[in-house]
Amino acid sequence: MEADYLLISSLETLKSHLRFLLTLRSREGHYRSLILFRLSLVQNGASKPNETEYGQLYAMEANCPHLGADMSHAEIEECDAGLVAVCPWHRYDFDLRTGESETGLKACTYAVQVRVDEDGIRRVWVETPEDGTDWRLVELRPVSEDFADPPPPPDLSRLTITSSSDDRSISSPTEPVVPVEGAPTTLIQWAVLILNTSNPTLKVERTRHAVQLFRTGQLKTIGHRSATAPRPPDVPPREDSFARNMVDPAKVTHRKNRAAMLHALANIEQWAIDLAWDIIARYGPAHPDLPPAFFSDFTKMALDESKHFSLLVARLAALSPGTPYGSLPVHAGLWDSASATFNSLRARLVIIHLVHEARGLDVNPGTIARFRRAGDDESVRALEVIHHDEVTHVTTGHRWFTWLCTKQGVDPVQTFRDEVRRCWRGDVKGPFNVEAREMAGLTPQFYEDLKGEMPLVDQASK
Ligand code: FES
């Protein structure tokens, strides 16, 4: 039977990077992650069907068939039989064309075609997986080449001011990125260390470092099946200067000036870094059957959130040096919501990734428009990056929620609605960004006419 192909992008779009992560979703809700390699190697001999002046194109599954390492940072080597991708974890190599390996394992590879459309534009098509129908592309993300040689992360302390009468700066980290004693040796240990890191600069640096170790094979052990996996904190600590400004979410006045908005968004991103590590550390040990792709997805999310945090803090410093990060009221509403789901991965995916994060998709366009009207193009660029990434975060939530529902033999839509009723308080508010939600897998049946019934906690009895 002839294979089906899915349109990925114009060839021109792929000029920007050498590797892309593709996320595909079928009509049945199955997901596949692929890596598209664009190799600029000059080959001897006859040209290949997928060869262009931009290099040869190959696609293979994004996780190694051995133990699931992320193949986005695989080395490409040339051997007698052709080109192979070498897994960063245990260095098994897989033929880029056939997926075969000398070890006997086989990776799924997908044919790539370049076709010229009726307007004369060359477009790249990739063969679709066999299971499922109506595959669509839900994410096309360049793989950052920074990770081969990561640049130093921003020092947030230099972006803030200190006055003797009112110390409002974020302090410089006093600890090294890798602890001198008891350095983490598993992903879960890194996650718990980062959750316990109160200094935001250090949290960002450690996030970048841990993800780099994990992706490049220097950290091969996830550690979620270990009986001695450390426990994450109930509430990640915050620096004193920050904690002094912590208020009840209900008492935060929604100030409309841009600095206050950037500050509020940066606070949410700092909690979001913690939440990405928390889902790894809290639920990994409780679900030993979680595949490595789950951990790849949430480490990617942690890295994105740390990038968002840095972007927002930098914009805040540029726009309003008098109100550095940590100087305005902040709240822990997002963490409070997460704590209602501590005993259920399913509820966590629903409440944090499919309700809170999906709400972000609804409100982001309005926020971006506000900054655009003010002529603040730099902030607009930062917010657009964040919005784009957040669609993929909701996709990740949907992917792993449907994975869990399939394993548990329950219906995703009905289960989603049940979890919202149980762990959410009040209406799931619109207006909805139906298009962005749908792109992430959330069709209106999930969220329309839905109200959470979680009882109010009596503060006096706490
Ligand atoms: S060779 Fe890839 S995970 Fe072991």
Automatic annotation (TrEMBL):
Stored InterPro entries: DUF455, Ferritin-like_SF, Rieske_2Fe-2S, Rieske_2Fe-2S_sf, Sol_Rieske_ferrdox_dom
UniProt-recorded Gene Ontology molecular function terms: 2 iron, 2 sulfur cluster binding; metal ion binding
Region span, Disordered: 144-178
PROSITE patterns xrefs: RIESKE
Keyword Transferase in record: no
Keywords tagged on the record: 2Fe-2S, Iron, Iron-sulfur, Metal-binding
Record-annotated Rieske domain positions: 55-123
Superkingdom field: Eukaryota
Protein name: Rieske domain-containing protein
Annotated organism of origin: Postia placenta MAD-698-R-SB12
